[in-house]
Amino acid sequence: MYAQVVEGSGKGVKSAKDMSPEELDFQSKIDAGQKIEPKEWMPEGYRKTLIRQISQHAHSEVVGQLPEGNWITRAPTLERKAILLAKVQDEAGHGLYLYSAAETLGISRDEMYDQLHSGKAKYSSIFNYPTLNWADIGAVGWLVDGAAIMNQVALQRTSYGPYSRAMIRICKEESFHQRQGFDIMMKMCRGTDAQKAMAQDAMNRFWWPALMMFGPSDKDSVHSAESMAWKIKINTNDELRQKFVDQTVPQAEYLGLTIPDENLSWNEEKGGYDFTDPDWDEFFQVISGNGPCNAERMRARTEAWDQGAWFRDGLSAYAEKHAGDNANQGVKDV
Ligand code: BYC
User: Fold this and answer.
1) How far apart are CA 40 and CA 85, in angstroms?
2) pTM of the complete model
3) Ligand 1 pocket check: which of 124, 150, 153, 224 to mutate, most ligand atoms within 8 Å of Cβ?
4) Does position 291 have pLDDT exceeding 80, yes or no?
5) Computed over its alpha carbons, how large is the radius of gyration of the chain?
């Protein structure tokens, strides 16, 4: 692994002979499977890549509340409403663990929000698609959370300690999310013809965007090589996409739904399905801000930020006012 270590630019690959003693020591820890903790020395590129990925991940959780939140008031039963509320609250919690993990790398939460609101930081492409009806909530849980888990299970083994630990907790909750989505789909597929048609329609619209969640093909992935050398990423984008397809096809068959890909077929030799790539032009349009709901999502987030200013000010004023309280009471900081 030494010979392939990278520099953090997203392009250059640094060989062992070009590394400083600190870099060599760092890489040997990574290669030995040790976790890197916040106060340890790390290459600047490693720190920056982690901030980019973890903050984008956090933003995805927070923006990801919007398409589902849209259906809380319109869930078909009280039970479905309670389940969806719990799920959406979990996503907020995931965002908070991830922002906290990113903060250990020396960036503030305000800076991360600023990067989201200015468009500098990305969030998952999937949340720029609309949720048009209740079956879409099933498809989001089943396919979107299913794709997210596929990536996140691997990320539990990521090399940065706080990120890895956040992932362990997140994965436990995500598996409930995926099950609830599958459960909605199952109900609809066993319902009336009209309900089954809604489920198929949701599948048709969410299949391709779900495949895009894993990022561009490996040949077009800018960051994969360095992120894998540093074990920030454990699998490539294409590896995870393949695993997702292989896992999802039997589930779709069980539901009696058709995957909208004429080229989908089992490939005995590779032990996996062959499938069509999503439309990469569409993907790059969406991540450049031109998807169906990008403007709406950003408007919702910036409005929430602006409208919450009085609350943040109140919290800061309270914290300032009480900053000396412990000292006054003779309690020592530990
Ligand atoms: N969407 O070099 P690449 C969830 C960008 S949501 C937008 O392969 P990398 C949930 C990429 O950032 C799941 N942008 O990048 C919540 C880069 O641009 P920049 C969230 C994407 O980072 C609520 C450029 O394309 N999960 O759980 O090595 C409800 C080149 O790509 C996307 C995570 O965020 C995309 N899909 O690999 C339900 C997982 N794909 O940054 C569910 C953590 C690529 O240079 N993230 N780009 O401007 C990752 O594992 C990696 O960041 C990715 C991309 C696999 C996503």
Assistant:
1) 39
2) 0.93
3) 124
4) yes
5) 22
